[in-house]
Here is the input.
Amino acid sequence: MTRVSPLPHPDEQETVTGGGALSVANIIDRAVGSVCRAMILLTGIALLVLLTANVVARYLMESGGFRFAQELPERLFPWFIMAGVALAVQKGGHMAVESVLARLNRGGARIMLLVGFAIIIASYAILGWESIGVANIVSIETSPVLGLSSSWSYYALALGCLGVILTTFALALRVWKLGPEAMPTPDPEETGI
Here is the structure.
């Protein structure tokens, strides 16, 4: 016999189906999460292979390793880190002091979180914009062996800021629609707590 769960109350229907703003938040989270996980995987594997090969090459080659082995990690590591930053925001993995938030009622906590999200979005928008400006300034500097522009690291910062902005916007949509309970709780296994 198949059990059929009762239909949700009309007020709960949007929450259950994820309609409207929650659908947008889910789409944003899936897109940012997929891009960030792919970036971490690709840059992590590249860093691991490159650094391992360089260690082996130090013992096998008279030159003491690959000449480009220091330049490439310097260009890849910021992409790895900024993708991790955006994922940590998505999972609630950043450090937070919630002593005031815990003392507020549900409505006050919602307002405080939304104001905080607005500040975060504005701050990261400014940081991202400025990092693009710096990337344009340092674009003439290139690495000696590979000739890669120094602007790569600043573009990683700008795209990481965009990831944080989008993820924070998705969090804001959830808190706006569902309340403070919609804030992600980090998994202790992922945070090392």
About this structure: Residues 110 and 151 are 39 Å apart (CA to CA). Confidence is low (pLDDT under 50) at residues 1-10. The longest helix spans residues 21-60.
